[in-house]
Request: fold
Amino acid sequence: MTAEISETTSMGEPFAAKTRSTGEAAQHPAGERAIPSYKPGRQRGILVIVRRSLVWLLTRQWLMRLLRTCWPIPRLFRYAMVTRYDDVAEVLSRPDVFKVPFAEEIARLNDIGENSSTPFILGIDDKEAHDRQLKRVMRAFRREDIAKVTALSRTSADNAISSSTACPSSKRRQIDAIRDLITRVPLEVCKKYYGVEIEEQQKFAYATMDVSGHLFGRPTVKPRPAIDKAAAYFRAVVDQAIDGEIKNPGNSDTVLERLVAMQKAPDNLTRNDIRAFLMGMIVGFVPTNTMAGGHILEMLLRKEKFMDAAREAAGAGDDDLLERTLFEAMRFMPHNPGPFRICSRDYTVAPGTSRAKTIKKESKVFVWTMSAMFDSHQVDRPREFNPHRPASDYMLLGYGMHWCVGAFIARVQIAQTFKALLAQPNLKRAGKLQLRELFPDHLLVEFDPVKR
Ligand code: HEM
Reply:
């Protein structure tokens, strides 16, 4: 049994001549940055089976319902769980008590190999420090960019679909909807909106997924050599983009250009801040939207009613309804069942109620957001598929201070990607959803060619 990502089971392409190992860095011409070695592997064996089984268990409706009714705040050894909507909301609203478990590790991975560590918002629980950084992030990633991200996502989704191939045994077309569409579109957005040039796209995506799976898995989040390699590679690609922008400033209003300009007052960003912002907003994006998009597609293919509703919204050109429909489908298979927190002092959840429980200092708390979204004390007819639910029924994008800052990008990127896919006539599954660790990796779909 191994907790490491195998270094030997390479499934990525052989290294391009440009890709050099860290040890060779000294031979580079001055100013040219080396990209360290990273071979995407696959975790195998018992650890993956255990992680997948846990996710399976934590997405069972019967278990959520049983616990919400009979044991809403289970505590066992140094673990605790909250299952009811109000208690989940309470825990996520108290970052002063319930701390994220990955703060130090995010900061360490941002600067790996350097004698420093730079925090990023999701790893900052101090409200003032968090909000200070959040404002700076939002000055680079602006809400008014939504039209740009929408257009970019749609164009790259259309391009991806036009690269679909003929089915071997029929006149239909086929595409690997994960690798060649759902992961590809976010990578294109990283390139054209963020301004981060990515040469080996799938390899880069895997590196971000390795980092994401490591950070947001079950605590304690401890350094692991294989993850350090993935993070070093990821970081070097981002560094290269920053170098390029500093040397040859572009003129296309990318996030990177804005961040470099923000080195001046009043923002006074350091170079490490720029890298941390980009790494955080990439690791929040590429792996998460792959997970979310893959799960949405799986739900649409499983449930005819969901697919019909999504097709109808896409066909009507109603982007808002399409977004709602896709996120409602995701409620039934969220990108994860919930985050973890570490309780920093003895704390009583749901005080004054019959279910009140004291969670002990240092307990690892599983905050079951999926269960909260099916809690009938708060959510009207939770098991019904209803794209017209109020926003308050959802915790897909978190709750409280750490609520997803990339929500506007997530929504339009997913909606535009599915709009392009759902426009294909007679869309059907042509294979099973295949995972790499917990992340969707392949899902073959086929459709009729569009008559011109
Ligand atoms: C459908 C796709 C997405 C889902 C389901 C999602 C979900 C979430 C959730 C649940 C949280 C809270 C985590 C916690 O409390 O521990 C969160 C926070 C965050 N997300 Fe997303 N996310 C998505 C897309 C994105 C995108 C596209 C970006 C970046 C462009 C992003 C960047 C972030 C960041 C930086 C935070 C931390 C915010 C803070 O601490 O203030 N996410 N996201």
